[in-house]
# Entry
Amino acid sequence: MVFPKFDPTRPIAIVGCGVMGAKVAWACARIGIKTRAFDTSGPVLEVALGTVHGWSEGEERRLLTESLSFTTDLDLALDGAQLAFENVPEDLALKQRVHADIGQRLGADAYMGSNTSSLLCTPLADASGRPERFFNMNFTDPRSQGLVEIMGGSKTAPETIAFALDWAKAIDMIPILTRAEQMGYSFNRLWRAIKKEVLQQWGRGAGLPEDIDRAWMLTFGMPYGPFGLMDQVGLATILKIEERYFAASGDESDRPPKKLYEMVARGELGVATNRGFYTYPDPAYERPEWLKGGS
# Structure
């Protein structure tokens, strides 16, 4: 069995071009990797096109324009690709269906990966039909943070992990390898413990988002707190992740708060809808007077 090394001259297919899919596509194309961004929705691709071009200028914009294409034709996106990297919502059954489909269409020597923050690798890898060539990655924001976590499944070949590490480094990310498969990778489990605690405090009325975020920002010198970060990730995604942890443990302390369900039902999803724990595009936490307790 042949396991090709990462090749910056071979195409990469990004499957699913919402918020994170667009960011990963941008990270690849801006350095000249031929990148094909696929989505079933033409309007989603139009939004992604405008968004990613707004992130680049000069030579980077030129490389992006030459290297990045958008399509609603999955076979076209996958043709000759060395990697198909999926970015659909955090739903196990949905991701399994997507990977089963990709696995039947993709070239035999190509790799497959999933951008997921809470799902284990093995169930996705098994669905792909090529578990030895499959890996999970959890991206932060490639535009502003270098961190990406990588994890294999029970059958992932060492060569596949080497490929994932090389790809991450090529697009200027700093890979952190989780060396034994576990829900939530390594660092992301730490973030999840914080997220769970602040959501539970808010849910039972013990702490307001702005007070908790102020304390976090003042203590750690960060530009936003846990609630501001959740708005950036997207509250529908946050809810799905918390539901995954609750389903896995059955522990009532892992159950997402009712107030989070209510926010998502109202369409208050964070930055994407201009309203979440804060309002956008001018969130209160970006104002210096707010950090000091002002409005």
Notes: The first strand starts at residue 12 and ends at 15.
